[in-house]
Amino acid sequence: MRFGDVVLVAACSRRGFRVRVSRPAARACEEWVRLEAELDASLLGRQGVLICGPNGGGRAAAFEAAGVPARVLGRDEQVAALSALTPPEDEALLDELGGAIDVRAVVDGLAWALADQLVTAEVFAVRERGGHVELQTSEGLWEAGRAIVCPGAGLHELTAELGLDIPLTLDLHARAAFAVREPGAALACLQDRSGAHGEIVYGAPMPDGRHYAVGLGGEHEPPVDEAIARLTAYVERALPGLDPEPASVRLCRTSILPWGADAFATWRAGNVDALAGANLFKFGPLLGELLADRSDELLPDAQLGRARTAAGQPSSPSA
Ligand SMILES: Cc1cc2nc3c(=O)[nH]c(=O)nc-3n(C[C@H](O)[C@H](O)[C@H](O)COP(=O)(O)OP(=O)(O)OC[C@H]3O[C@@H](n4cnc5c(N)ncnc54)[C@H](O)[C@@H]3O)c2cc1C
Predict the structure, then answer these.
(1) Which atom of ligand 1 is nearest to the CA of 137?
(2) Nearest CA to ligand 1 atom 47
(3) How many domains are there within the chain?
(4) Which atom in ligand 1 lies closest to the alpha carbon of residue 282?
(5) Residues 237 and 178 both lie in one domain
(6) Nearest one of 100, 81, 97 to 207, comparing CA atoms
(7) What is the pLDDT of residues 196-212, one digit of tens each?
(8) How crowded is the C-beta side of 56, counted as CA atoms within 13 Å?
(9) Are 146 and 174 in a shared domain?
(10) How much distance in Å is there from the Cα of 183 to the middle of ligand 1?
(11) pLDDT tens string 147-166
(12) Ligand 1 mean position, distance from CA 52 (Å)
């Protein structure tokens, strides 16, 4: 897996999270809660998510309809939720149970649970042989009844021999972490779609509580140097509670399907399923179940993960 130390900001309650992608997100939320119990680990942060930008009222109604606790906050309350922030607007929505997923805890917990069933190897070829699958790997040649191929940005390379036409576009994303000037203060996650401070960004506290990660949330990825400069400028303007000199930078390949920033699907070649999509981490436990069951919900026609409005209409991608 490629990952940061934290991913995503998600509103999660017993009834679901991310109302704009409500069905898969709500189901994923249930799976996350189940996984926490199974691994006996805390995986989901509940720092809250401050959502700044247009349509606050509509979002509040959608959260309410979904049974997800959310409140409209004034400027002082916004600072109380995210002390490092200069609020971009008079009002913002706080998704009270949202938070960041602790990626390291998830990966460590799963690796521990699987223990010696895991084989770490480089896969050089996956071949469909009419009824069985052949794998050529650094650890040997394998034959399997089924294979689920999830190589992230390595998808095209690994599926080249399967004759699949997967419309996955790759790009490079930069996210920086900044030192918190006063560790210990309240640090909600952030989705700033207002543009009032000059950028659309997402942000989340790092698990150490001493750093805060910020990434650009627009549709197009700028070159890395430009992204870092813009993030630094944003932090200077919008987040005076952070030191604007990046403490660390994480670069990762992004992979996106044409029908949305949260879209995902599998393509099939015989007994091989190849997974492609973006922002998959938040759907991880649900994806695992669907992949294991070879669910038709994952076929491209279902356009799973496509963002929809509260009324069920397709909407623009979410951060
Ligand atoms: C900075 C950053 C922020 C993100 N924020 C969010 C977020 O807020 N919410 C969210 O849901 N998602 C987020 N994501 C995206 C999320 O991390 C990915 O969607 C998710 O990790 C994809 O999982 P994956 O297992 O399909 O692919 P990957 O995580 O890319 O894992 C694929 C793995 O396969 C391995 N591999 C590739 N080819 C081969 C081969 N031939 N042989 C053996 N191994 C191979 C790779 O080394 C890698 O380990 C973020 C990603 C980054 C980097």
Answers:
(1) 42
(2) 1
(3) 2
(4) 11
(5) yes
(6) 100
(7) 999 999 999 998 889 99
(8) 20
(9) no
(10) 29
(11) 999 999 999 999 988 999 99
(12) 27
